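Reminder: ligand-aware prediction takes two inputs, not one.
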Amino acid sequence: MSRALQVTRGTVENGGGVTVSLRTDVVDESLVDESLVDERLAAADRDPGAADPGAAAGGAAAAAINAGDVLIDVEFSGINYKDGMALAGSPGVMRVSPLIPGIDLVGTVAASASPDWSVGDAVIVNGWGIGETHNGGLAERARVKSEWLIARPDGISAKRAAAIGTAGFTAALAVLALEKHGLEKRGLTNSAGKEVLVTGASGGVGSIAIALLTAAGHRVIASTGRPSQREYLLGLGAVDTIDRAELEAVGRPLQKQRWSAVVDSVGGQTLANALAQTVWGGGVAACGLVGGSDIPTTVMPFILRGVALLGINSVECPLPERQAAWARLERDLDLDLLDSFTTSVDLEGAIGAGAAILRGELHGRTVVDVRA
Ligand SMILES: NC(=O)c1ccc[n+]([C@@H]2O[C@H](COP(=O)([O-])OP(=O)(O)OC[C@H]3O[C@@H](n4cnc5c(N)ncnc54)[C@H](OP(=O)(O)O)[C@@H]3O)[C@@H](O)[C@H]2O)c1
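Here is what comes back for the chain with NAP:
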């Protein structure tokens, strides 16, 4: 038996609703036979419709969203903002229906037709379209492409790797991008001791960004909409918090220079104000859009202060950058601290957690123990 959480988006004709169901499939017994699996996976490469484990359930469409040369026994997935959107049937994330959501998965290789991976390898997949255009991690088994895998770092357990997930990986990419832009060179008390701003601070990206920036010696100011999270954010290492409302009001194109750098998960007016408040030559890493996908800014921060807007994309991020980000997480992230802000749910619990993240009610990270 292999279980998966499947989301089916209704059409206008049948009512327009979204159905989230816990689907229980009996996996073809031959899939546990290694030699047969390899044969079937090779056949799948030749004819994706013919050898798909889910073919009985979905035919050619199921084959396409299950195509891949490696079969994974999934141990953990997680709840990112995007997973909340997929579980709500949002067409911007859930690009096919039905779909198994889950943009992260952590597990071990159960069968491989790739020379790069062997049975038993501990692996991670973040992004690459899983949980969007390809069946994702909210399942006990997943078939993915070998080039999407990275080896799970020795020092990070499967559960902790899922707790880091796309959110933590993105936070690491943002910190590395800011450093590449010069944050490190300008010094830890750069630009007359200005601090680094993290917005959407209590969330997954925000929490791990605070931890990584603090570990690198920066003084971090956390912007949050929840005063109740202040102690939590100080516990992560932030030196102070500000009310996110301060960044939500329409402001002038250039404002007092407050931040040496910014990690932004919010977008919209918050991102515009962050740009307007960043020091000469500073970088702003744009990661998310929980507050809006527009940027109501002007060219002023760019042409008068040389501020750089650094786009962060975790989904198609190339392998060397992925490895650098995970190496940074392994080196700098306090794993006991990570545990302190990680909550665990089972597959059924993922449905409620997905709804809660969209309401802005979760803090830190939520792991899905798919076998619980
Ligand atoms: N670029 C990429 O590759 C990439 C990768 C991962 C995530 N993302 C994006 O980054 C964003 C954060 O993802 P996440 O997984 O960290 O989500 P999350 O855990 O929900 O964190 C978002 C945080 O933003 C704040 N927030 C919520 N609603 C808000 C609103 N309407 N206005 C302003 N702030 C709000 C909340 O923090 P406070 O209560 O402390 O204010 C919330 O905890 C999402 O947009 C996600 O899609 C992008």
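The chain has two domains: 2-152+341-369, 166-311. The longest helix spans residues 158-181. We will return to this case in the review session.
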